[in-house]
Design goal:
Layout lengths: L3 E6 L29 H8 L9 E6 L3 H7 L8 E4 L5 H15 L4 E6 L3 E2 L2 H17 L3 E6 L9 E5 L6 E8 L4 H10 L2 E11 H11 L1 H8 L10 H8 L8 H6 L5 E5 L4 E2 L4 H7 L8 E3 L1 E5 L5 E3 L5 E5 L4 E6 L2 E6 L6 H11 L5
Parallel strand pairs: 1-2, 1-4, 2-3, 6-10, 12-14, 13-15, 14-16
Antiparallel strand pairs: 4-9, 5-11, 6-9, 7-8, 7-9, 8-10, 16-17
């Protein structure tokens, strides 16, 4: 396993999970499922047996350094990569891969978000191991593909060829289509969701950056000698402005011809919204999801997440989100959850302490 590395992206704010997820303490650092471990802790544990602990890297924002150290105290400072600014996933992944390459040019890398749910962890490990074995000896960019259950416009869609049993060549890669195309993709039965989990050899991804994002490749190549040194942070501040604000999907995966997909039934959810948490959670006889101390009367199809030290009494709600954290309480119809970003914007005008 010495050449296997895991890069966990943990710099997002998770606005759609407000008021639980805040800019100072986003959802990846919370115990969202109520299992006694935060999402980032669960993500790291998921890779046990895939790579050595010293080969796990977290890419996050400077303001989340303390949270990372508190929740993952066994990681060294060299394993916590602090971005000087948020510029989407391509610079985040480029930074980590170029840093790892400077230490181990034979590295085989898994890139995963810190805030996804994987319910079938053994199946997940088998799929990741299969992909790592393939990427070790083939010049390929691999992603995990999930069977879509609805025409969601928030995911990338992968169309694959039928050749190959487990690892299939990608025919087309479309990042976040509009609703009309998403409906067509799901109806066709030829598309899977891109889970946002990637596997590749470090030399393969470097070639992809050089081909499709040459300015970014040049920026990280230019600070190669500063990685793992006291000069790294200052070098990054000079390199990051040269990096385009772009996702790895738009910047590389849609353009590359050597993209493959591993079809995966792993109980996956990106846990992007309150409804996605509702969908995967255990429910009572009235189809309510409850995390907290609540007395419910004539209430059904709701998700309630409130502080355990507070008693909440709810009467007559159907299909609502009731979420309280710290100094904010939100009561919102589940069907209107896309308005949460609007709520956050307005809450910010009332004071920074609310966002």
């Amino acid at each position: 396993m010495k050449n296997n590395y895991v890069v966990i992206m943990a710099g997002g704010v998770g606005t759609r999970f407000w008021p639980f997820s805040r800019s100072t303490n986003p959802k990846q650092f919370h115990d969202v499922l109520g299992v006694g471990r935060t999402m980032i802790q669960q993500t790291v544990e998921r890779f046990e047996g895939i790579c050595l602990q010293e080969n796990i890297y977290i890419v996050t924002s400077e303001e989340y350094y303390d949270l990372c150290k508190q929740q993952l105290p066994y990681l060294s400072d060299d394993q916590i990569l602090l971005e000087p600014s948020r510029r989407n996933t391509a610079p985040c992944i480029g930074y980590a891969c170029y840093k790892i390459a400077s230490k181990n040019p034979d590295a085989n890398i898994v890139v995963a978000p810190a805030d996804h749910i994987i319910l079938k962890e053994e199946d997940f490990r088998k799929r990741i191991s299969m992909a790592l074995q393939y990427s070790e000896t083939n010049e390929v960019l691999i992603t995990l593909g999930i069977q879509p259950t609805r025409p969601d416009t928030g995911y990338g869609y992968i169309q694959f060829t039928e050749s190959g049993e487990d690892i299939k060549r990608v025919k087309t890669f479309t990042e976040k289509p509009n609703l009309e195309w998403a409906i067509k993709f799901v109806k066709s039965g030829e598309f899977v969701w891109n889970a946002g989990i990637f596997i590749w050899n470090v030399q393969t991804i470097k070639k992809a950056f050089e081909l499709f994002l040459p300015e970014m490749a040049e920026a990280f190549d230019g600070i190669n000698d500063e990685f793992y040194s006291g000069k790294e942070a200052d070098a990054l501040k000079k390199a990051y402005p040269q990096c385009k604000n772009i996702s790895i999907d738009n910047g590389v995966m849609e353009k590359a011809e050597n993209v493959f997909v591993v079809l995966s039934d792993i109980g996956w959810s990106d846990l992007g919204t309150w409804k996605s948490l509702y969908d995967i959670s255990a429910k009572d006889e009235d189809q309510n999801v409850i995390d907290g101390r609540a007395l419910l009367y004539d209430t059904k199809n709701c998700i309630i997440k409130t502080p355990h030290e507070r008693l909440v009494i709810i009467n007559g709600l159907d299909g609502y989100i009731v979420a309280e954290y710290d100094n904010a309480l939100m009561i919102c119809k589940k069907e209107d959850e896309q308005k949460v970003k609007e709520f956050v914007a307005v809450a910010g005008t009332k004071g920074k302490e609310f966002v």
